[in-house]
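User: I'm writing a tutorial on reading structure tokens. Could you give me a worked example: one chain, its sequence, then its tokens, then a sentence or two explaining what the tokens reveal?
Assistant: Sure. Here is the example chain.
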Amino acid sequence: MENAANPVAGNANAAAKLAEPAQGEMVAYDRWLERAPALRAEFAGGTPTRHLVLDDFLDSAAAARAVESFPEAMDDWIHYLHYNERQFGLSDLDALPPALRQIVEELSSERFVHLLEELTGMQRLRPDSSLEGGGLHRSERGGYLNLHADFTVHPHRPRWRRALNLLIYLNPDWQDDWGGHLELWDSQLRSCGQRISPDFNRAVLFHTHEGSYHGFPDPLRCPPGVTRKALALYYFTEEAAPLRPVATRYRARPGDGLLKRTLILCDVLLLRVYDRAKRSLGLDDSFANRVLRKLAGR
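And here are its predicted structure tokens:
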């Protein structure tokens, strides 16, 4: 009766109901699909690369469970510790806590992939069940990720072209002066076009290609014991013939000095060797983890 007497309130209540996920849903599909035409136009016009920033992306309860279950122990984590990167990753789906594994499985479902296609206009997307290079990412105080463009072809599926990155940040009460902003740069690395704070339950979607340089290159200034947490999933398109792979390419920023530029380049050359070995010998990042941990110890 209250809504009948107040049609404005009734419309508002109906819209709020539509915005809430259905019982048990981790993503508010109806809410995002309702906004799909506008978001698709926003994605297409994004600079310096096509992208979207979507706040309150997961159901709030699912996002809270993800933070609560985010692992603290580092035994199974890959130690990405080399000159161009200082962070940790967990890409073994079976090693994820149930709450996080359920989210990853939902974000790899046919229904969710269809949602991504509606939001971006990209077609025939494929999720990566192996979470190659993705999964959980965690960076401690002093951690960083230099500017880079991602590998272009799946290491073990030569016809899969990398097309779309999805990053979901899980950082309650993140402070702006701690840094950790995702930077999106133009393909010529002349300027930073976007700086996106890793706020809690914020999702960033962006088109991945040979010129989509991104990272958080300044060391984190968060307090000891606080970490920058993210869930990363990558989506591919399948081509008719095998593709020429290009390994991850790290680059210096315009203001970086000669020494830093030289060290970045040396690290890139080592990573190219590893990428070729990975593709030809069928290695995975657990092998790299063992090598990097030994090098870090020295």
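What the tokens reveal: Confidence is low (pLDDT under 50) at residues 1-19. The longest strand covers residues 228-238.
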